[in-house]
Amino acid sequence: MSTIRLTMAQAIVRFLTAQKADIDGEILPLFAGVWAIFGHGNVAGMGEALHGVREQLPTYRAHNEQGMAHAAIAFAKASRRRRMMACTTSIGPGATNMVTAAAVAHVNRLPVLLLPGDVFANRRPDPVLQQIESFSDGTVSANDCFRPVSRYFDRITRPEQIIPALQRAMTVLTDPAECGPVTLALCQDTQAEAYDYPETFFAEKIWTPRRIRPDRKELAEAADIIRHAKKPFIVAGGGVLYSGADKTLASFASKHGIPVGETQAGKSSLAHVEPANLGAIGVTGTGAANALAEDADVVIAVGTRLQDFTTGSWALFKNPDRRIVSLNVQPFDASKHNAKCLVADAKAGLEELSEALASWKAPEAWTQKGQSEKTRWFKEAARFTDPTNAELPSDAQVIGAVQRNTVPSDVVVCAAGGLPGELHKHWQAAQAGGYHMEYGYSCMGYEIAGGLGVKMADPSRDVTVMVGDGSYLMMNSELATSVMLGLKLTVVLLDNRGYGCINRLQRATGGESFNNLLQHTRHVTLPDIDFAAHAASLGAKAIKVQGIGELESALKEARKAERSTVIVIDTDPLASTDAGGHWWDVAVPEVSIRPQVKEARKAYENALAMQRLGD
């Protein structure tokens, strides 16, 4: 057997360069690059190894470990999980900074390879700088924090261990059902140790997406349930996009006359002009999609994990006879809430389900009801997004301005706060992947780093990041990275002077405004933050606008700009779209001295009666 002597770190990067992806017949590197912030735990081992392959496997430097991992995750999401990136850090805070991002990837079923440095395997210099010591377990390090948020975790204490570890990692990263973050904790002394690796370990391997076909019996049972439906309704989740099933879904819905509602992850599965597309479903849903979901007797869940925002905390589907058919590549998701499982890839499953249904169509009256509700919703929603001369516009009015200044190929990126709800209701995606929302983990700070990852995945598409002042303050450093890399973003920063979304929720549950908006926090002096000046200091073009008219002019200028532009606009922290939507289970205290809380508790107890679990 032919061997080659390499350090463990060199073996890792050589292996990564050998992994390829078949993207519609084009062979590309599976790993588009490695994000790296070097420290004493990885600069000597991984740093030297990455330098040796810098032309084949680009290394990108970020400003924050969580941010760079968000960028990698967004890249994978925008690439529909067919390409990915790796991230390497030192031990200690560099590693644990990535734990939140690992949770984002885990919840959203997205592939990312995390390579944090770790303590010395030989333990001779213990305790080393940044080492977390357990008083009761000598095998524990800070990297054990990754265990619950990784699909696969391994600690590499000998150089030859990387052979089975990387092979196992690849099966997880590329498997449509198991897909998620992989963490290989690399002991810093082991990174530098050499081993005679078999040359076959570095042979090129081309990965193509696995399409799991449905079981014959499950398919027949699912088709039989749908054939007996009078009011079928499709819930399109992120799995539709990951599978590349957007055109298949459009054909299926049209052929069988079934209305469609989109989750946050599934939005842009269908173009907004598709007749069957009634828009967002659930807590932040449109009046059209929710009206039909409430009445549906068969809910066909495609590629969705049916989280509470989608199901209205399991109170949305009100038809007492409703059944759920869950088409999902992961049995864990397909079996939720006593659903009839159809374990399959979304594209393959929809194709075979359509064949099984043959010429069957939903009753015309039901299909027409969907069209009528959609027309009514668009008319109603326009009231919230139309231009205004208000000194403090609402989030929806800002969204309307951004929408009017887009082209069909544009991508809008967002993550947490009040904007996801308004975007879910109002944004009109023209093309698949035109709506990129991280709402599985609802992670503040994802927005700008995520926009960077989206731009890296497809530089031909203009990317607009919408972010609140709260999220911007949490993580803005990758704005500088976008400038450094020449990856232009348009960032629309809505300044409502605090956490406006949670302030509204606080008041809706009977609470008094407290500790969310800056004016309601303990303070000596209220901060007057010049966000435009801050963004400019990071190298971006920046402008503060007054009102919607100036915003629209600034958006036109940003499209012409050669580097990232940040547009800051003051907004109303209290205004939100009061049309559409649905109840969400947020527990209200049973005991309070405040009458507003007592009233909210009564309303909460009444709403709980609508929940239907396990039927």
From TrEMBL:
Coiled-coil parts of chain: none
Record has Hydrolase as a keyword: yes
Residues covered by the Thiamine pyrophosphate enzyme N-terminal TPP-binding domain: 48-130
Gene Ontology molecular function: 3D-(3,5/4)-trihydroxycyclohexane-1,2-dione hydrolase activity
Domain Thiamine pyrophosphate enzyme TPP-binding: 417-569
UniProt keyword terms in alphabetical order: Hydrolase, Thiamine pyrophosphate
Chain ranges of the Thiamine pyrophosphate enzyme central domain: 219-353
Group of enzyme by EC: hydrolase
One Pfam short name: TPP_enzyme_N
Record's keyword annotation contains Hydrolase: yes
Enzyme Commission number, as recorded: 3.7.1.22
PANTHER family: 3D-(3,5_4)-TRIHYDROXYCYCLOHEXANE-1,2-DIONE HYDROLASE, THIAMINE PYROPHOSPHATE ENZYMES
NCBIfam families, per the entry: myo_inos_iolD
Homology family: Belongs to the TPP enzyme family.
Descriptive protein name: 3D-(3,5/4)-trihydroxycyclohexane-1,2-dione acylhydrolase (Decyclizing)
The organism of origin for this protein: Microvirga puerhi
